[in-house]
Specification:
By secondary structure, this protein is mainly β. Helices cover 7% and strands 41% of the residues. Strands 1, 2, 3, 24, 25 and 26 form a 6-stranded mixed sheet that branches. It has a 4-stranded antiparallel sheet with strand order 4-5-6-7, with no helix packed on it. A 4-stranded antiparallel sheet has the order 8-9-10-11, with no helix packed on it. The chain starts with a helix and ends in a 15-residue tail after the last strand.
Length: 338
C-alpha cells in the first residue's frame, strides 16, 4: 500500500469515529446552576440550555459545558413553538415541518414526515396535543406519540398561537385578526381587526391562566387580557419602543405558577416578566448566543413546578429557566429534570 494512502485512511477513520460519537444520545442534565436575575434579589435562574442542532455545539461549547448544555443530535432548522407534556418538551419546528417530543433521558420522537407544512403553535389539551399548521391553514389533534387523530379545523388564515381551557381549543387566526374557539365541532369567533379594546392587529400568541386569555397582539404592540367566554376586554399593557417593558414584536406568552406573565420579543431579543396588572418585574437577555442571550426568542411554556422553557429560535436551542420562590438556589422538584 502506498505511503500516501495511509494518512488518508487514518483521516477518514478519525472523521467517521468523531461523527459516530457526536450522534449518540446523551442523558440530559439533572441539576445546573446558571446565572440568576436580578442578581441583588434572585427571582429567576437559568437552569439548562438544550441545543437542538449538532452544529451549534461547535461554537462556545466549552464555555457553556458547566451549565449543563445538552445536545439533541437530530437537526432542527427553526424551532418556534413549545409546550410541556408531563416532564417532556414538545417542540414545533416550522423549518423542518415536524413536531418533536423530547424526554429528559434524551429520547426523541417525531411526527410523521409530510404531515405538516409549517407547524407553529403547540399546546396540551387533556391527554392530547394540538398543533397549528400556519401554511396549510389547519389545526391538528395528535396523540402522545405524535400520531394524527384528526384535523380540528381547516381553511384558517395562518393559525398560530394555541391555548386550551374547559374542553375548548382557542386558536389565533393571525390572517383574520381574531381568535377561533373550537368545541364539539363548532367554531366561534372572538374579536376583529382594530386597535380598540378587544380588537387585534396580527395577533401571534396565546396563553391562559385558567380564568382569562392573554393574547400577544403583535402589531398593536401590546398584550391583551380578554374573557374566554365572550372576548370582552379585561386590560392590556405594552407599547412600541426598545426600552424595558416595551413590546415591539411579541412572539410568545406564558403564565407561570405564580401568575407572572412571560413575554418574548423577537425584535429586542428579550424575555420579560410582568405581574397580572402588566407591571414589569424583570427583563432578561440581549442579542447573542451566550447564557441568557437570545436570537429571536419565540414560544414560551411554563411547567407547574416552576420551570419555564423559551425557544431561542435562531440559536436553535431551548433555554430553561427556574422561578425561585424562596431562598437563592431553591427550585421546584421533579422525578426527572432537564
Amino acid at each position: 500500500m502506498s505511503t500516501r494512502v495511509l494518512p488518508v485512511l487514518w483521516l477518514i477513520t478519525l472523521v467517521i469515529s468523531t461523527v459516530g460519537c457526536a450522534s449518540r444520545m446523551h442523558p440530559l442534565p439533572q441539576t445546573t446552576s446558571g446565572p440568576t436575575w436580578p442578581t441583588e434579589h434572585p427571582r429567576v435562574r437559568l437552569e439548562a440550555i438544550i441545543e437542538l442542532d449538532r452544529s451549534a455545539m461547535r461554537k462556545g461549547a466549552g464555555m457553556r459545558r458547566w451549565l449543563g448544555v445538552t445536545e439533541i443530535p437530530q437537526s432542527f432548522r427553526r424551532p418556534y413553538g413549545v409546550t410541556w407534556r408531563d416532564g417532556d418538551l414538545v417542540v414545533a419546528d416550522p423549518g423542518s415541518g415536524r413536531v418533536a417530543r423530547i424526554a429528559p433521558t434524551g429520547k426523541i420522537s417525531y411526527s410523521e414526515r409530510g404531515l405538516f407544512r409549517q407547524p407553529i403553535g403547540v399546546a396540551v389539551c387533556d391527554e392530547a396535543l394540538v398543533v397549528s399548521d400556519a401554511e396549510a391553514g389547519r389545526v391538528a389533534l395528535l396523540d402522545g406519540q405524535l400520531r394524527l387523530l384528526r384535523w380540528l379545523v381547516e381553511d384558517v388564515q395562518r393559525p398560530t398561537g394555541l391555548a386550551c381551557r374547559d374542553g375548548r381549543v382557542y386558536v389565533v387566526e393571525t390572517g383574520r385578526h381574531r381568535i377561533l374557539v373550537l368545541k364539539d365541532g363548532e367554531v366561534e369567533v372572538l374579536g376583529e381587526r382594530g386597535a380598540g379594546p378587544g380588537e387585534f392587529n396580527f395577533p401571534t400568541s396565546l396563553t391562559t391562566d385558567g380564568e382569562s386569555l392573554w393574547v400577544g397582539d403583535a402589531l398593536n404592540f401590546r398584550v391583551q387580557r380578554i374573557d374566554p367566554e365572550d372576548g370582552s376586554p379585561l386590560g392590556d399593557f405594552g407599547r412600541v419602543g426598545d426600552a424595558p417593558g416595551e413590546t415591539p414584536r411579541i412572539k410568545g406568552v406564558a403564565v407561570d405558577r405564580n401568575g407572572h406573565l412571560w413575554v418574548s420579543d423577537g425584535y429586542l431579543d428579550r424575555v420579560s416578566l410582568y405581574d397580572p396588572r402588566g407591571r414589569l418585574l424583570i427583563s432578561i437577555g440581549s442579542t447573542g448566543s451566550g447564557e441568557g442571550e437570545f436570537s429571536f426568542p419565540a414560544g414560551i411554556a411554563a411547567h407547574p413546578d416552576g420551570r419555564v422553557a423559551v425557544v431561542d429560535s435562531f440559536n436553535r436551542r431551548l433555554q430553561i429557566f427556574q422561578v425561585l420562590d424562596g431562598e437563592p438556589g431553591e427550585a421546584g422538584s421533579a422525578d426527572e429534570r432537564w
